[in-house]
## 1
Amino acid sequence: MPNTEKVTAVAEIVQHFNDSSAAVITEYRGLTVKQISELRRNLGGETTYAVLKNTLTRRAATEAGLTLDESLLIGPTAIAFVKGDPVAAAKGLRDFARTNPLLVIKGGVLDGKTLTASEVGRIADLESREVLLAKVAGVLKALPTRAAGLFQAPLSQVARLAKALEEKTPGAPAEAAPAEAAPVETAPVETASVDTAVAEATIEAPADAETSTETPAEPAE
């Protein structure tokens, strides 16, 4: 290959490394063109499966700032450059290798860090990014429910907040706390803890908090 073509080829591989969140290095010895085409279809449009020369790949990896073990670039080499979900790509390669044992997963790179074949396998065992995001969304969706529960705080907490505000107001008349607030009297709230009382009660004290015995209504949505 003329030098100009090598330079261009190396530059393309460097670009692949730089644009990818992950790269999985494989040996494809014995696979037919039809099988490789099938693998490319299975990996989808966000993963580029490229058959490469080892010498050019070594040079490109160095230029991209990556340190690849020499054992990864021995024999016929093809690299899956992943621009989408690394978990999905790792699963696709693993599943294909199970039915086509001639495909050997040798290792790879994830976010600039080298991976062994077993580490690629562990990534394939993870849940996909979409599933993880769905779980996170489920947790976040549950948070408003918890917050709504805080708005239904026991009356004793409301009374504690009212007592804290009363103690902070200079010259406020001393009045008896409501019956529901009796437990609060055993642990008086200091002026400095008003903010804490507000946070724990999670609601604003009603204007008649010192005399009312009704449960505060939920705030309007």
## 2
Amino acid sequence: MKKVKGAILCGGKGKRLRPLTYYFQKTMIPIGRKQKPLLEYIVKLLKYYGITDLVLLVGYKHEQIINYFENGERFGVKISYIVDTPEYQGTGGALLNAYLNKAFNNVETVLVYYGDILSNINLADLLNKHWEWNASATLAVAAKYQIPVGVAETRGNKVVGMREKPWLPIQATIGILALNTSTLKVLEELGKKMKNIDIMGNLIPELIRRNHPVYAYQHSGEWYDVGTTERYEKLDNSKIDEMFKHIV
């Protein structure tokens, strides 16, 4: 098995989760019946699939994360931390900052996990497919996405039907991806041209433009974006416990 390091993005200010994030780092909001931090579920998911070398890319209220997880020993993992800098911003900037700080030395694959995503994805299978396809990047995608608003069906200006928060048949990225460490050199090049870099909006399109092999891994299980106050309020704690019953 190739050497893998997990990189969890947990530095954002969580503006869509305000006012909660005036007091909490967004990845530390309590979920499930036992009210454990969201980030704990992610750490334990990675550990369950054998990814025990982790770097947490932190920034806003990072003291909460470091004080809780420390070096990761009590969770059965090894955790290091890279604190965001003003020089590099966005998800890609956080990843680039970690790369420049040599967080991925002697690592062949980086498993990137967005810190506001809950999922029961099979990370071992994703990584095996990534290597089987000899991909530069493999994005976890879901075959459908539920939009958060109702949709009016119209004929001209007349409304002839309504669909409340319908599911769309699209390949929705779910904030989990595998990257060959060599692709981070492309990220470094982008960092010389822009300050705010987005992984999905800048890095992945650039890899495609350069004809790097980028693949989609189909995830048919559960996933949930906890990135807004509305979505957090609608979390079903019993469903979360069911999702992670073999992991947490």
## 3
Amino acid sequence: MAELPRRDPSNAVRVGQQRAPLSDLYYNLMRRRWRWLVGFLAVLYLLINVGFGALYALQPDAFNGVEHVGFAEGFYFSVQTFATIGYGAMSPKTLYANLLVTTEALLGIIYTAIATGLVFAKFSRPSARVLFSNVMIVTRRNGRRYLQFRLANARGNELVEAGIHLTMLKTEISSEGHSMRRLHEMKLDRANTPLFTLSWLVMHEIDEESPMYGEDAESLAADEALFIVTLTGIDSTFAQTVHARHFYEFHDLRWDHRYVDIISPHSPGRLQMDLTKFHEVAPELDANP
């Protein structure tokens, strides 16, 4: 079976844009994963020392404590200078070598400051660990049609004054016959919660004012509808605003289904949230429209 499409507007291809990799370097490093940042710093560290090691080897007799400086000796001396270790076994004795050491020492200070700032900024940046259900469901509640999805706070801390927005991207044709993809806000039964600790069932009533009114699985598939979910809240640990977002495709909808319960009593005064069943859905007993 072919893999169903999953779209992310942040991955759009930008044609004709002038790239500025150096000016956006900090942004690109901060948004990437840890292994990419550590790998980048390690490769840059190695390249700098390889370069200075080669420069030191250009003047083999420029150092005290050793008769001949090859690439290996120059590389290890570069590592010592760059990291301000200074064992003292080798020392520069010519103007050329002293200028290289001065330049590398300055570069080492700058590199250490930048690397420390990047690691600290990335490590200390608060983030929300929010689980979004794999699918959305269309079900009935009190005789009315609802679109629902749920989310859970996987970290277990508190998100204060959390707010959620649901937007539907669908095609709209004007009276002049022009077709355009537009974002439609979807009104939620409860768009804010004072304290988000466990789970949250988000509900949108499919009434006459809903952008989903009159739609079914076939029409949404033909239009390739997309649902955009954004969540913001204040992390109680850091007292800073955090956010999360998720995209639901038209094929993520399950019609006439319900979510399996995940909240149950655990012990006196405590609740249990079973995340192993978080994404599970079951057919409605009465699926008649």
## 4
Amino acid sequence: MAGISDVQFRKILDNNVLANHWLIHMAAPGMIERKDGSVIIVSSIGGLKGSKVLGAYNISKAADLQLARNLAVEWGRHNVRVNCIAPGLVRTDFARALWENPETLKAVTATTPLGRIGEADEIAGAAVYLASSAGSFTTGQVIVVDGGATIAG
């Protein structure tokens, strides 16, 4: 954080928080009108901890967690649920630089109880739950899907 410019920090916040805010507010009126809906924000386990390297990113992901909580309080009376999924390292194109780096992959999997990184369909399962009637009494929550990384230190 010490070396980041305001422009860089703002870009991260715009991409990870403000863009979510805008998209949610585009979809929410219809959900509120029909008194039914589920908003799912994909955050990150980075929002749950500090980092020597990814501070601004982690701050933005923590803001997403609070965005979900606040909107859940505001829209609960309309039966609109708002939740977050906080994945650990997942084999996606976005995270390719991390999981293709042998040192990073080894470091992550060495401290993760399941001993591996996640796959996209494992994150999708949490989204299906939150979007379905099975998740109809879940709001303002963060579902961590990280192979146990956050519990292992």
